[in-house]
Design a protein that fits this description.
By secondary structure, this protein is of the alpha/beta class. It is built from nine helices and twelve strands. Helix 6 links the parallel strand 7 and strand 8.
């Protein structure tokens, strides 16, 4: 399968008064055409930063980034402007990601206006088409965002992201601020859009149930690094990394007769500022050894398509 998006040892560091913050530290991944890669991990692990790096809202510190087989790591402004047509982002907060002073129609049409695509009447037709695609009634065209609920606001964001017919969309926790019933509607909408238009998604979330439902494969992140990557069914059926096992053990099961032992994660988080050598999870890992504190594990393929960064599998 051809890769739509690929990163190789991608890094993003930020300078702080106390040192260098390793937000994303050597992440390598591949997303195939018409596939969804789910990225999970606790808050602060670098998921959103990774998404912004991939669509070049942030510049990377090191590493390489490929889109449709082309190296886009150091493209110029003209090439980046053309690339914007092909990749978009749906942001986490449907309340702050839209301009409160613009109507629904103006928000959705803004990418078309910026890229000088279509005439005024053609833009209006395109807005009507996009609203229908995402399930927004045309009567909301002249409505302002504060007059709508969270689900409709998020549909506005999705319609805006679709305006330029992108082939790749980063979904940064697009349902975390919504009620459960609305979450299901948005997730089903995204799946339908993928089937209809053949899009590729990077889906960022801390909700494992949501990621399991929508993703073909999953990457687990911990403090800026990828600790495990594989197909969704494989991850839930055969988790290898101790952190992944702990995450899955915390997922509630709707069965009072099912006894599930939760793996408690104890200890303090390693600081992402000037992190010491060794595994980032070692101070909290029940399986850690002396080697884990001295040597950083490399991500290796322990079985076909299943990558894990842990000394237990070397």
């Amino acid at each position: 399968m051809n890769s739509k998006v690929e990163t190789r040892d991608l890094k993003k560091y930020f300078q702080t008064p106390t040192g260098t913050l390793h937000a994303v530290d050597g992440v390598s991944l591949k997303i195939g055409e018409r596939q969804t890669l789910g990225v999970v991990g606790e808050s602060g692990c670098g998921k959103s930063t990774l998404g912004r790096l991939i669509i070049k809202l942030l510049g990377n510190t090191d590493g390489s980034l490929f889109f449709d087989g082309k190296d886009i790591t150091n493209i110029d402004k003209k090439e980046l402007r053309e690339l914007r047509w092909k990749m978009q982002m749906i942001f986490q907060d449907p309340y702050s990601s839209v301009n409160p002073r613009m109507t629904v129609s103006q928000i959705i049409a803004e990418p078309l206006k910026i890229q000088n695509k279509l005439t005024g009447s053609e833009r209006e037709e395109r807005v009507e088409e996009l609203m229908k695609t995402v399930g927004l009634d045309s009567r909301y065209r002249m409505t302002y965002p504060h007059e709508l609920d969270g689900g409709r606001r998020q549909r506005i964001s999705i319609a805006r992201a679709l305006a330029l017919n992108p082939s790749f969309i980063v979904c940064d926790e697009p349902v975390s601020a919504l009620d459960v019933s609305i979450q299901a509607q948005i997730l089903n909408l995204l799946k339908d859009l993928q089937d209809q238009f053949g899009m590729t998604f990077l889906f960022i979330s801390h909700n494992l149930a949501v990621v399991k439902y929508i993703s073909h494969s999953i990457m687990v992140m911990y403090l800026g690094v990828s600790v495990e990557q594989c197909q969704t069914e494989e991850l839930f059926g055969n988790p290898l990394h101790p952190y992944t096992r702990a995450l899955l053990s915390a997922v509630p099961v709707a069965d009072i007769h099912h006894q599930k032992k939760e793996i408690a994660i104890k200890g303090e988080l390693t600081s992402p500022i000037n992190p010491p050598p060794g595994c980032r999870f070692a101070p909290r890992c029940p399986c850690s050894s002396e080697r884990c504190f001295q040597e950083t594990p490399k991500q290796k393929e322990v079985k076909k398509g299943h990558l894990v960064a842990c000394h237990l599998y070397e």
